[in-house]
Amino acid sequence: MTIQWIPLIALLVVNLALDLWLYRFFRKNKRWPRLKSGAHAVLTLVLLGLLVAVIAIPHKECDDSTFLFMMWAIFIYYAFYVPRYLAAIVWVPTHRKKCGARVRKWGGICATVVGVLAFLFMLSGLFYTPYKVKVERVELEFENLPEEFDGYRIAQFSDTHLGTYSSDTTFMAQCVDSINSLGADMICFTGDLVSRRSGEALPFKRVLSRLHAHDGVVSVLGNHDDGHYSYWSSDAKRKCDLDKLISLQEQMGWKVLVNDHVILRRDTSEIAVVGTKCFMGWPFPKYGNLDSAYVDYDTAKRFIVLLQHSPDEWKIDRAYQKRVTMLRLVDKVDLMLVGHTHAMQCMITLFGHKFSPACLQYHYWGGLYTEGDHKLYVNIGLGMVGIPARLGSAYPEITLITLKKRGECIVDEYGNRIN
Length: 419
What we know:
By secondary structure, the protein is α/β, with parallel strands linked by helices. 34% of the residues lie in helices and 19% in strands. It contains 9 helices and 15 strands.
């Protein structure tokens, strides 16, 4: 969890301006001006104190309980300010001098309703949405998929951030049962098992060991798994903790792909499952190395599934990300499975269309993306980091991907596909 200082300072200035304006309004109110303005002032000071605490606490040096306190403090701050903003948007236009008494009355009522609904929305994201797991079933067709793998099923889950749940394994046990019930041929985990240190995963070792599939559980590491969100007296100790996390996954029966690959076989046909460390760059080193993970991209002509934590470099659009170099993973792999974005733990679904603030930061933030016969799927994760909530329709996700062999396309006289 990193702090973006410039947006944070800008947000603080805007919030203080809104609070000052509301305080002056309550002071002029005819009904209980002192009570309203006093309560508002106390609430503002409490929220400001929470924000100052989050800024002042050394993030990397703090223990897990303090880290959880910071997550809760950030959520409480937003849970009160988001309704305020929305209510103000409704209230301000109806309380100009030109507006009559009736308009002002109904404007105040509407603003109150909007504020209350927004607050309930935030509460649902705290107590309901994070524990309502949704299974996304996706069928993907590929022309070069071996016929023996037609119907092959992959269960993907990602971003558990186990430290958020402390030692409570209830939710993760439900997720394990849901994944096992899908009867997938292979289970893939695409990174961020923990948020800061390997010790977060210890209480969940027995639960996660229950995952089973014909071709096993294959995993890769995420940016949080590398330990850069915690303080270490030396880089050697950070690497030692990372080795503990890898060893723990292996003890659970998982195959951890650290710039490595496995070959899956059905009769005489093969597909390659390649796994790399995270491709994320600044502010951390970029550890992913596609060439050392698998070298036979052009010679073997195998169908390739790439497991990676971050979607950033599937297809770099220079106009979008303004990078000098261009690594087109889309040209090398048939299917890429990633996580990382969480859809920023906030998503709204309207008439089948999904909207998330994640689109402001990520080009590929959730769901399926296609270029020709190459496909990318972004799983929005199971767990939480930053705030202990998932808002709107950003439900914890388990994805069941079914690979299908695309046959010869036959069309009728009107151009419609028959098979």
